[in-house]
Amino acid sequence: MSSKKVREWIDQKKDKIIDDLVEFLKIPSVSTDPKYSGDIMNAVKFLSSHCKAIGLDTKVIESDDGYPLVYAEKIVDPNKKTILFYGHYDVQPPDPLDEWESPPFSPSIRDGNIYARGATDDKGQLFIHLKAVEYLLESNDLQTNVKFIFEGEEESGGETIEAFVIQDQGKLLACDAVFISDSAMYAPGYPSVVYGLRGMVYTEIRVSGPSNDLHSGVFGGPVVNPANALALIIGKFIDEESGKVTIPNFYEEVKDIEEWERKEWAQLPFDEKKYKESIGVPELAGGEKDYSILERIWARPTCDVNGIFGGYQGVGGKTIIPAWAGAKVSMRLVPWQTPENIFNYFEHYVRYLAPVGVNVDVELLSVARPVLINLEGEIFRLAENAIEEVWGRKPVKVREGGTIPIVSTFFETLGVPILLVGFGLPDDGLHSPNEKFSLNQLFKGIETVSEFLVAVGNL
Amino acid sequence: MSSKKVREWIDQKKDKIIDDLVEFLKIPSVSTDPKYSGDIMNAVKFLSSHCKAIGLDTKVIESDDGYPLVYAEKIVDPNKKTILFYGHYDVQPPDPLDEWESPPFSPSIRDGNIYARGATDDKGQLFIHLKAVEYLLESNDLQTNVKFIFEGEEESGGETIEAFVIQDQGKLLACDAVFISDSAMYAPGYPSVVYGLRGMVYTEIRVSGPSNDLHSGVFGGPVVNPANALALIIGKFIDEESGKVTIPNFYEEVKDIEEWERKEWAQLPFDEKKYKESIGVPELAGGEKDYSILERIWARPTCDVNGIFGGYQGVGGKTIIPAWAGAKVSMRLVPWQTPENIFNYFEHYVRYLAPVGVNVDVELLSVARPVLINLEGEIFRLAENAIEEVWGRKPVKVREGGTIPIVSTFFETLGVPILLVGFGLPDDGLHSPNEKFSLNQLFKGIETVSEFLVAVGNL
Fold first, then answer.
1. Residue A400 to residue B227, Cβ atoms within 8 A
2. Sign of the CA dihedral B396, B398, B400, B406?
3. pLDDT per residue over B81-126, tens digit each?
4. 0.90 exceeded by pTM
5. Is the CB of residue A219 less than 8 Å from the CB of residue B297?
6. A396: which strand partners?
């Protein structure tokens, strides 16, 4: 049993592992705002140095108009199987800053968790793969070829890696399976394999009226107020009775949930009261009434306002008709909705809903295809076994509500199984203030990946 | 005829009048931003010195937590009529600074206009009253008691004068009519008397959902999105077909437009094409379809979003369900809507519209009562005659869409006619860059007020 050996190694290296992760988390590598581009380069430097330091052949793949990819590999034997690990070194913006108990880029360890932006999404989780391989290299037990590809645009569209994977056509990235840890376990103690992801269409709507802000007394009445008009448009996106999105043809391509899925999910523990409390909402009254909570999140599409803005936002009042108002609106897609069709339907619908008297622009900011992975074959079984060995139970088969755009590209380009095995926990607060990652999950994750690689090496 | 004499006086004094006004306009007495409070005090000093210099008994009325009032009077004979002039020495902020052709606080004379922040609103216009009285004092023709009350918070809530007028209960401010020049003529060559102002209820709505921003993938579906919910609520405020505000009982207290008003306003020149171009809107499609443009602005209530905000507002995308979203929403009221009732109806309506799954707060930020002045009696006729003599035509009787909160307080407290006779022009750009005041309007204004005071003195 290698399991005991890897646990000992982790025990000895604990402080060093945490120290390294802290250094990584200190870098505010926010990809959605150009002002952080210097920090992005610092994250690239950190990550490539780290890969070299643990003994991987490493190179930075520059991009003309995007952020670099970091590629690293250890080919132990061309006849052996190859696992490609994917992760992302960029993070979400940290706002609202005043809601963080410790600053987002000054990692803080409390109650067995490390708190920082990117702790679980995805710096902490990609560290699992690196540390597992570091262990196997140090102990001379690496019998599987490993490749790593890290991108810096996961939170901002992922165009660079998308283009690279398509251009590469499985040459540099040739492998027998892709292993990704960028998700959470279903629940503590419930190791999970994710076989479905939602896709996305992310848009920005801008409603324009007068050329300048107008005095709301002198002009109020005949002038159509762009902020009222924006609300009028957005307010119609969801049917109040059914909870369904009202965009014409929106559900046309949606694949029905299968019977085995309904059953598997219905058996999962789900404490609605606790769930509501954990996120602080009075009722789970959103989405389609005909579907269970998990079904709504995992297998049904949505239309959410991610941001809304226009006019006066300061203290007190300012009596203006704002010249314009806008909103970020994104739709989560499920198999087999196509982003192109959905954006097309959406744009037409927004224009149709816009009242006379204002102009409307609809911009497409990013897209991602939904994914559904077939859970069969040898490598999936090995992963399932490694998980069972470390966690004491077989993984549950779940989908996720989130989006990992690159997964669908791997899926289509490499034609190999994709193992989405996340070690986060549901309350990690990714994309929110006080994002965290459990150190216990980190260490057991390293153990799991090490077990898996050893098993693949024995094939 | 005194008219010739006052014109001669103006002709001789022209340069001095302009020089004095320039000195006054140089003071950046912005009341909405505390950093200008020293300049506010400089404006108080300038104004009180100036009142003394022209022979008025003057005092500064300090305020505990607001800016001082300047009071000045000349009681020529207790048996004569008394006119109270109101004006304000504070000005709007000058931003956006880069759109000014000459700096806002370096008055510049071009094409017969004086350009500066406050030129028309209200320093130039209150100067009309002072110069008319200065002329009558110099020529020993003042046969009317005059009082002046100047405030420094007209652009920031007017709380000090409000409290003072209510506390004074018509003692210091006892008069036979109030004369205010803080508005514009309907059009060049169309001297105007404003007899109606809209009131206001200014509110802030806040819709709260989850205790933190949530990942829109991980939680999107069952969670009611507060920004979508806010849009749902606001989107229902105005009926799309009729353009009417949908708040129950909203129109209950609205006084119908009278036949003579419809006729008077229908005869006013109104170039819809030019109007649309001047504010840059494609159509004047807002408000109640059954009313003309002027009727919608002057005599019908509105419900406008002045600002809307929530979630991510930066560059690119952030995939969150925002924890909350809010909006500044104000309603312009017409006679005889009462702010208390309207806020009550509004608050109930917002709560009624809010979907299950979010919490709603509605805060009242400020109110002002609408005003409708009865245009009858001797003093109005004298003003009408003075205007006709100077401008060659009787004033048109108009209302205004804006709100002058102090007018309703004078109205209720003093119980005397209020003459809203503005000498600005519609293109003066008050509250905007390149605010100006026409020197011709200034001089004819002085003539008009002098004529009026002479006529009142002969009563």
1. no
2. positive
3. 999 999 999 999 998 898 999 999 999 999 999 999 999 999 999 9
4. no
5. yes
6. A192
The tokens describing A414, both together, are: 């490499």
Chain B contact for A320, CB < 8 A? yes
List the structure tokens of B169: 């209960």
Contact B307 A322 (CB under 8 A): yes
Q: pLDDT per residue over B407-422, tens digit each?
A: 989 988 998 999 999 9
The domain defined by A199-266+283-368 carries CATH number 3.50.50.60: no
Distance from CA of B15 to the nearest CA of A (A): 33
Contact A153, A83 (CB under 8 A): no
Judged by a CB distance cut-off of 8 A, whether residue A327 touches chain B is: yes
- For residues B226 and B276, give the distance between their C-alpha atoms in angstroms, rounded to a whole number: 35
Alpha-carbon gap, residue A198 to A244, rounded angstroms: 17
Interface check A188 vs B, CB under 8 A: no
Contacts of A355 in chain B (CB under 8 A): 240, 285
CB contact B285 to A (< 8 Å): yes
Residue (of B371, B182, B277, B144) closest to A212 by Cα position? B277
Q: Which CATH class is domain B2-197+370-457?
A: alpha beta
**Can you tell me which residue has the tokens 């050893």?**
A454
From the list B338, B285, B345, B317, the residue with the least C-alpha distance to A304 is B317
Q: What is the pLDDT along chain A (459 residues), one digit of tens a residue?
A: 456 899 999 999 999 999 999 999 999 999 999 999 999 999 999 999 999 999 999 999 999 999 999 999 999 999 999 999 999 999 999 998 999 999 999 999 999 999 999 999 999 999 999 999 999 999 999 999 999 999 999 988 789 999 999 999 999 999 999 999 998 899 999 999 999 999 999 999 999 999 999 999 999 999 999 999 999 999 999 999 999 999 999 999 999 999 999 999 999 999 999 999 999 999 999 999 999 999 999 999 999 999 999 999 999 888 999 999 999 999 999 999 999 999 999 999 999 999 999 999 999 999 988 999 888 889 999 999 999 999 999 999 999 998 887 898 998 899 899 999 999 998 899 889 999 999 999 999 999 999 999 999 998
Give contacts of A305 with chain B, Cβ < 8 Å: 225, 227-228, 231, 310-311, 322, 325
Domain ranges of chain A: 2-197+370-457, 199-266+283-368
* B211 and B383 Cβ atoms separated by less than 8 Å: no
What length does chain A have? 459
> Which among B215, B230, B334 is the top mutation candidate for probing chain A, defined by the most A β-carbons within 10 Å of its own β-carbon?
B215
- Whether residue B400 lies within 8 A of chain A, CB to CB, comes out as yes
First and final C-alpha spacing in chain B:
16
B199-254+301-368 is a CATH 3.30.70.360 domain: yes
Tokens at residue B446, please? 């002085």
